[in-house]
Amino acid sequence: MAVITLPYKYLERLTRTDRKTILEKVPLIGSDVERTEEDHADVEFFPDRPDLFSPEGVARAMRGYLGIETGLPEYPVRPSGISFAIDPKLADIRPVLGAAVIRGVAFDDESIQSIMSLQESLHWAVGRGRSKVAIGIHDLDAVTPPFRYIAAPRSRSFVPLDYTEWMTMEEILEKHPKGREYAKIVKDFPLFPLIIDSHDHVLSFPPIINGERTRVTVDTKNILLDTTGTDKRAVSVAVNIICTAMAEAGATIESVEIGGVQTPTLAPAERTVSVTECSRLLGVELTAASMAGLLEKMRFGAEPVGADRVKVKVPCYRADIMHDWDLFEDVAIAYGYDRIESHPPKTFTVGKPHPVQVNAALAREVFTGLGYLEVMPFTLTNEDVLYKRMQREETKGVLHVMHPISIENTVVRTELLPLLLEFLTINRHRELPQRLFTVGDVVVDCRTHQQAAGVSTHPDADFSEAYASADAVLHDLSVGYTVKESADPAFIDGRRGDIIVAGKKVGVFGEVHPAVLTAFELEHPVAAFELDLRAVPGYPAL
Amino acid sequence: MAELTQNEKRLLATLAKEKKADAPHIAGLLEATPEAVVQWAFLAQDKGLATVERIASKEFVYTDEGKTYAQNGLPETQLLRFILPGTRVADLKKHAAFGIGFGQLRKKGLVNVEGTAVAKVPGASTDADEAALKTPSASDQKTKELIKRGILQECETVRYAIAITSEGLATVQKGLDLRAENGTLTREQILSGSWKNANLRRYDVTKLPKKAYPGKIHPYQRIIGEMREILLEMGFTELYGGIVQQCFWNFDALFQPQDHPAREMQDTFYLRETLPLPPGYETVRAMHLSGGETSSTGWGGAWKEEKAEQCVLRTHTTCLSIQHLAQNKIPPVKAFAVGRVYRRESIDTTHLAEFEQLEGIVMDEDVSFANLLGILREFYNRMGFTSVRFKPSYYPYTEPSLDAEVYIDGIGWIEMGGAGVFREEVTAPIGITCPVLAWGLGVSRIAMLRLGLKDLRLLHKSDVMFLRETPALWKAKGGI
């Protein structure tokens, strides 16, 4: 999530209203006010609205929402006469380039900080950690156009930002903090992307680091923006968001020529949408005129076309408008969620519980009748608990997660009993007897099914208690079964039985083996059993 | 006044005559052990009917060794008697008391040894030691020595003097029912009718003898059950499905772009396993690439089959909803699921890597966003939250999207869950033409508020005392 710092004074000047009104209403366009400080507020915006990742963007939206200035914001662009040439060798490396000239900026330390944080938020939300889009901002007056975006040898050197000595691009990946952080994006390419001017001065080694030469300072008046990446749409959105934010701050935008095309144009996209479709989706009665008015409030250009259509001009910074319904959401926001008259649908249906949950509820009923207390252990566990302490072989088909968070959570449980014994360990200091059960999912071979298990511990817990409890559960769930001597090493030899249904083992019961008790640091005997609930009649084939 | 037991009554009756006596004496009269009598007396004392006085006295007793010396004299005394003029050490060695006695004599300086000859010093006597042995006294130095030598032992003897109080006397004078008491009502008494004369012991009914802990359903399971019931009452069909899901159903079919941050390794538990894509997956691919046949632009970029085939631990139960829709395309559909979902988060008091999610969907002709708000309001009202409000939100697979907040006294507005209308990019590829209203909520969040938990882990690694002590009826149904 992107948390944006909004300095009150600047925000009030841009929005043309007071901070109280802004902070009260800003959640209604889709945000959370994280904290309010003496001179600023930190507000979280959703990742689909990168145009709101700057005070300028927020002010623009709020002016519309509060009715101070509605409709499409226009951003005039004139050609700068500056051009970029793109090296065809970049086609498989980082082919897309966007650029613009931003003139007449008046930077102070705070506004430099603000544009840097917009840049970082865009790297995160649009750029996927710079791999899809990376943005560079340069002092235009420190370099000489025309510029070239080339694929350069890895041994080419320049002075990277925050350094005084020359480094090769390979050295930058090894030594510069940004180089190390983003090396994975480019390190496998034989040549590296580089932006240079007509004197071969380096502006940037995208997506890693700019050159020190074009560092932006409070004295910078004119900016060259470069945006490189792998996705044309994402690159263009990033350029549009930065240019329009800077224009909101008072700068003028000029286009550059890339491959014979003047860019950016900052021109809106057009979409004609249906009023009926919008009314039906939202459940709100709308006319073409009312819908157009609501869209204007959200800073779209909107013009009714006949009774049922609205022609919408989508500002160039609205990356999220992919589909007509994206506009309908803005209509709903402008209308106000709190004003929508809510009523449940008339759809008639009959409720139906899932048979697996019906069986689980019955199993719970029998267990609690036997005096067992329900517990709900985690499903993620580890081989030590599941197998080693149980003296059991690893279950065939156990799932290992690829990147576990800790050694405690490496596999998905295949049995429940070990987790119940672990529970007894946690509760060693509590009064006996302790009788615990759980009913829940286990996963074997990527397939999920339910099992039920119970443990009882006290000085007299024994085989007959295990057998009697298992029998009660099986009987009440109508499972016809036979028993044969078990070989499960978790139990004492001669005091363990396999539960057999239709010739197949579906469970086990018995007196837990002393070595297993010791492994779980338990001091009293434990009577235990576990049952595969697929043996219960009516368990659906999944 | 608390009830008297039969034994206390008998004690008081005896005391009324004896006034004050030692426990053994009363024990003799009552044909009981002195220990039992003392116990009854203390109970009577608690009720102010008797007093128990503990009288401790010290006395000296002989050890086994001491007992023989008391009879035969201390070893040094015996040896001293044996020494005559001209006695040699070798002669003394024959005496049984030599080992200890000779050492003591030398230590006390009562003999002189010159070469092989041994002689008493003039006036040598052990009379003081013998006197201490016969009549020990705590302050006597000789007695202390004998204790040190393990000949004497100091013992504390305790006796109890029991007396009746005036209140006790009054109780006796009022009359006591001294008939024999019965502890238990027996089958024989019931059958024979002898219960009529049986004097069943009266109990202090205000005292809980021992807590009983019933077998119970987990408080968290109870909350899940409550939600299930509400949705079943509202006409929803329950879904159940696998924990392991293909990325295709968990992400791609829900229009989450393949480079979406939520799909990264650090947020999702990936598995090595893969599953083949379902037939017709191409419509989903087309939607991602170009928006298929809808007004959408799609995500553009690339869409790789391998990424969709990979398995994950489901990150939400929406993967069950979408598969249910793919199999049930004819409206109406109303379905819900409560199930465990997985996020690769570091575990702390409010974040778990696995937690329960509730998810519901409604698919029908002409259902609207306003209907979604209506369902949510109804559901939360039934859960006991009377104030519900909605605000804009963002979810990759819904548009419009919202978050529902409920008002809780003393806490304020709390975000409970997200909702929205499935994007056409989600429904069109699986052939659904009606709008699908969808909402989800974190069940553990409600459990945490309802049970007042500070640490979510307690739901899954619980102290059994927490489970035993949490009432099945937790405050008023629904409310927090």
Task: Show the helix and strand layout.
The complex is a heterodimer of chains A (542) and B (480).
Chain A: E1 2-7, H1 8-15, H2 19-25, E2 31-36, E3 40-45, H3 55-65, E4 77-86, E5 96-103, H4 109-125, E6 133-139, E7 147-153, E8 157-158, E9 167-168, H5 169-175, H6 177-186, E10 191-196, E11 202-205, E12 209-210, E13 222-229, H7 232-248, E14 252-258, E15 261-263, E16 269-274, H8 275-282, H9 288-297, E17 301-305, E18 309-314, H10 324-335, H11 355-369, E19 373-374, E20 380-381, H12 383-388, E21 411-412, H13 417-426, E22 434-444, E23 447-457, H14 463-476, E24 482-485, E25 491-501, E26 504-512, H15 514-519, E27 526-532
Helix pairs in contact in A: 1-3, 3-7, 5-6, 9-10, 11-14
Chain B: H1 6-18, E1 20-22, H2 23-30, H3 34-46, E2 50-62, H4 64-72, H5 75-82, H6 89-93, H7 98-108, E3 111-114, E4 117-120, H8 127-134, H9 141-148, E5 152-164, H10 166-174, E6 181-182, H11 187-192, E7 199-200, H12 219-233, E8 237-238, E9 244-246, H13 247-250, E10 270-274, H14 282-290, H15 305-309, E11 310-313, H16 318-327, E12 333-342, E13 354-363, H17 369-382, E14 388-392, E15 398-408, E16 412-422, H18 424-427, E17 436-442, H19 443-451, H20 464-469
Helix pairs in contact in B: 1-3, 1-10, 2-3, 5-7, 12-19
What would your notes on this structure say?
The complex is a heterodimer of chains A (542) and B (480). With 542 residues, chain A is an alpha+beta fold. Helices cover 29% and strands 30% of the residues of chain A. Chain A is built from 15 helices and 27 strands. In chain A, strands 4, 5, 6, 7, 10, 11, 12, 13, 14 and 15 form a ten-stranded mixed beta sheet that branches. In chain A, a hairpin with a 2-residue loop joins strand 22 and strand 23. Chain A starts with a strand and ends in a 10-residue tail after the last strand. The mean pLDDT of chain A is 95. Chain B has 480 residues and is of the alpha+beta class. Chain B is built from 20 helices and 17 strands. In chain B, the strands form five sheets. Chain B has a seven-stranded mixed beta sheet with strand order 8-12-13-17-16-15-14, with helices on both faces. In chain B, a hairpin with a 2-residue loop joins strand 3 and strand 4. In chain B, helix 1 crosses helix 3, helix 2 crosses helix 3 and helix 12 packs across helix 19. The longest helix of chain B has 15 residues. Chain B is elongated and about 135 Å long. Classes of the chains: A alpha+beta (542), B alpha+beta (480). Chains A and B meet through helix 8, helix 10, helix 11, strand 19 and strand 22 of A and helix 12, strand 8, strand 10, strand 12 and helix 17 of B.
